[in-house]
């Protein structure tokens, strides 16, 4: 097998483990609650516990990688993920299921971090952005397909079949890493420097700080988008669940279009243009609600705002990741892990606060429009300085 193909399998297998384990189970939360005889609020813990453990596990990836090396760290993490998946498969009650999810989350945290760090050691500049765009494309497709596959598995075979598939994926991933991962140890992390020293070096790098701010703002907006659009389209505008699925699919397609455009050169390589799209989308949505247009016009304005925002987000993610990883390759694991932690922690807090405000004021559309404008300004400020 050619080394490029081997690297593609290693990086993408590592990158999708988190989204698979998180999104495949979402349609079956109610079914799991009924099967285990627990309330829906308790069943939701299988998502909440995973996200909590995953976020804080990101902080130890650099230390474990420095201790064992990239190859062994990934194999160890995926082995732990597989053990967690097997425990979930045979769990008789909620505590056992949550223990399995904890192991899953810890093991899953290593994949996305090291996938980006590995790419950074092999590419730089435009080539780095292209590879990160490819990774972003795959990472966007999986969350769309995973719930569909998980839902079908649960309907036909029961919810435990989801964890059988995840266990199989984990075993396959360990085999892939063992057979194909040929990178020398220590190339993505400075094994002679303490983690806190590496963080200190990163904080002093302007490109890292800008990349973190750009990605965090955009990631927060994506969480706000996912939290608010069901209430906006289904509850406020009265669209059917089928039409809403189409709308969500279209938003993903615009995001994928943005990731592909980020690989092209001029005129698509001007970063400022993309932040203006987010800002423009916010102005369209906010203006529509302020002047009280009818529902048809509001629907059109929302679709335009969503299209512009997702197109911009698809472009900005590879661009922001290339900024974040533009420093020394030996700091790439630390940069990726700290960046992902800040993104996930900030998105969870900010999206919860924004959603709570929208519910309290019953102004979901206005809050969404203002969020687009706020993030658009942040993106414009950072992109302008990077042009």
Quick structural summary:
With about 375 residues, this protein is an all-alpha fold.
Count of separate structural domains: 2
Give the name of the CATH superfamily of the largest domain. Answer: MFS general substrate transporter like domains
Q: So, CATH architecture of the largest domain?
A: Up-down Bundle
The global form is globular
Mean pLDDT: 85
Binned strand content? under 5%
For the CA atoms, what is the radius of gyration? Answer: 21 Å
Helix-strand pattern, N to C? HHHHHHHHHHHHHHHHH
List unreliable stretches of 5+ residues: none
Task: Please state the structural category.
Answer: mainly alpha
Could you please say which CATH topology of the largest domain applies here? Growth Hormone, Chain: A
Specify the CATH class of the largest domain.
Mainly Alpha
Count of alpha/pi helices: 17
Largest sheet: none
| Gap between N and C termini | 40 Å
Fraction of residues in H or I helices = over 70%
Overview of the molecule:
With 387 residues, the protein is mainly alpha-helical. The chain has two domains: 3-185, Up-down Bundle (Growth Hormone, Chain: A); 199-386, MFS general substrate transporter like domains (Growth Hormone, Chain: A). It contains 17 helices and no strands. The model has no long low-confidence stretch (mean pLDDT 85).
Strands, helices and their partners?
Layout: H1 3-23, H2 29-36, H3 40-43, H4 45-57, H5 61-68, H6 70-90, H7 94-108, H8 110-122, H9 125-157, H10 160-180, H11 195-203, H12 206-236, H13 241-261, H14 271-290, H15 295-324, H16 332-361, H17 364-386
Helix pairs in contact: 1-8, 1-9, 1-10, 4-7, 5-6, 6-7, 6-10, 8-9, 8-16, 9-13, 9-15, 12-15, 12-16, 12-17, 13-15, 14-15, 14-17, 16-17
